Amino acid sequence: xxxxxxxxxxxxxxxxxxxxxxxxxxxxxxxxxxxxxxxxxxxxxxxxxxxxxxxxxxxxxxxxxxxxxxxxxxxxxxxxxxxxxxxxxxxxxxxxxxxxxxxxxxxxxxxxxxxxxxxxxxxxxxxxxxxxxxxxxxxxxxxxxxxxxxxxxxxxxxxxxxxxxxxxxxxxxxxxxxxxxxxxxxxxxxxxxxxxxxxxxxxxxxxxxxxxxxxxxxxxxxxxxxxxxxxxxxxxxxxxxxxxxxxxxxxxxxxxxxxxxxxxxxxxxxxxxxxxxxxxxxx
Length: 283
Hints:
By secondary structure, the chain is of the alpha/beta class. It folds into two domains: 2-146, HUPs (Rossmann fold, 3-Layer(aba) Sandwich), CATH 3.40.50; 157-282, 3-Layer(aba) Sandwich (Rossmann fold). The chain is 41% helix and 23% strand. A ten-stranded mixed β-sheet has the order 3-2-1-4-5-10-9-6-7-8, with helices on both faces. The relative contact order is 0.15.
């Protein structure tokens, strides 16, 4: 039984991510948690009792809007999909988006978060890039980020970008391996060598560990040289026409280097490639 978190702000992009998740996991037994979080910003324009009354009124309206929106999403799911493998629970939480995510991940032992990369309200602030890196620092589960124009299709080729500084484990790669197995996907491992042209002894060792883990899977290995990380990742994604890109997140490190604003726009708006982000803490 998988426990999957589906954050929503009731936007088209959030619904697109929900659709993607339900297609991707159609053969899996899953509990899906559809989460809407809302927060009331502090305001200096209210004074005394008026401030308390106004905030209470706004809070009640937010609660009702949140619950109404979740009912609509759940009804849409039930009328669009019919899958006895899938169970759903709606969650309306009065917290900031990162706080709500952290609470739900812990409380329900979430295995994966599937979310849109663009949206309205809170999710707009948690797009792929430095903000997602910050979110990963709070949680210890994978994220699948779905670009706004990406629609589910057969996952034939999954790319995984690595600098071979990580000691891979089957546990850390479990979601990637499960997706590859269920879709009979090719795993395309690529390493970008910008300035240093040879692997260190430690990198060689980690490369062999990864090959051992992937020995029962269809896998190819590539090395890109004389190209920057951002350009190299973009070029590989587009030239291979990847169906999913996997990266391992390390705070203020590799993820920050490749998932800056320009890269995010390129992947989200042009390539439309879903991004599987694994947490370094899982390895």
